[in-house]
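Table S2 (text version). Query chain:
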Amino acid sequence: MEIAAGEGILSGFDGLLTFILVIIMMFVFIDWRLAALAVLPFPFMAVGFYKLSNRIHDQFGDSLDRFSALNDHTQQSITGIRMIKSMGRERIETAQFDDIAAHAASSTYNVQRSEAMFQPIIQLSLGAAMLIVLLTGGWLIHNDELTVGQLTSFTLYLSELIWPMYAFGWLMNILQRGSAAMTRLNQTLSLPDTITDAGTTLPYHHTIRVEQLTFHYPQAQRVAVHDVSFTLREHQVLGIAGATGSGKSTLLQLLMRYWEAENGMIRIGDVPLANIPLAELRAQYAYVPQDGFLFSTSILENIRMGRPDATDEDVYEAARLAAVHDDIARFPDAYNTLVGERGVTLSGGQRQRVSIARALISHAPVLILDDALSAVDVETEKQIIGHLKQRKEQTLIIVTHRLSAIEDADEILVMAHGDVMERGDHQQLLTADGWYSRMFAYQQMEQNLEAAS
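Corresponding structure-token output:
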């Protein structure tokens, strides 16, 4: 697209200007009869250009698709190289790569073969024009209607049309390439937003109220969240626990309006989510998922992305709160250490804690940890939770399988199959002798056995 909009337009303008000037010289200053006969092959060349351009558009679009599949497979293989080696899938992955690469190479070859057809079309057209000029010019000279000098001048001018013809051919080629690339880009840009952004009201406080919330995913029969209600006041801590697939992460996505709830209402500061602009709504949350994503840059820049204007000292303080400062200090380059693709040079626990630091440095009033402490040990988890409780600057929502992380929460919701089966604080749930009590006892026993060993 860049070449089509830059060099392509420039060469097309240059070729068009040369073509017009040469045609004027041939028609006006030499012999209009020869000029009229000389341009007879050009319409046939134009038809050839048109058909060839359409073919290149389709073939280049297919080539882009093939190359995209090759890139995806390569990136996936490199990212999962440890799993591939551990499972002995090297030969299988190599065979799949060879097959995808062969299709990509074949598609690219088809494009190159079509592009190479421009030159024969130009040469045949100009050759036919030259033959017509020489035959007609010789006859005119024989009849004393044209001089040898005029015919020589005319053929020289005709040879000057070689560059405009090549320029037009190259322009048609790269315009079709750009058009194919733009078609792929438009497919992404034209995707409709599943969430309507029509809100105009800003919340004046950050109390979250959820009333009889129900939701199920499109084309899914089972309800993901059913009749959930709770109130989370500013600076309180809400813990959400439950087995895998109980609806915990879905509830968080509904709070951030990644999905629209079918029934019920969610309010922030007494304002329904639909009335809040999406950008403003998302700015209310600092979200840390279980597989926290890190960009391929330094640790310092990854943390600073939570607040671009943060000072280095702000970054260090956020890292201390996330209990990752000491780990970073032990690296040879400390905070300037490059984390690699998706943070591959860091351990799982370090990636999670850097993601938590990035969320802590932001000014978002609500911090959400979606099982974001699963890869750290119990002692580090307690240290982080202790730091978060002391801050009192953000409302905290903790989704976890490790119940020790939510012992001190103001309220705990226990979910199963989309429903809230238990609710209360830690002591109340222990007394109720339900899922929470049994799971907590099991995890405590497991921790004691690990400590004893």
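Notes on Table S2: Strands lie at 208-215, 225-232, 237-242, 263-268, 271-272, 285-288, 366-370, 395-399, 411-416, 419-424. Residues 42-79 form the longest helix (38 residues).
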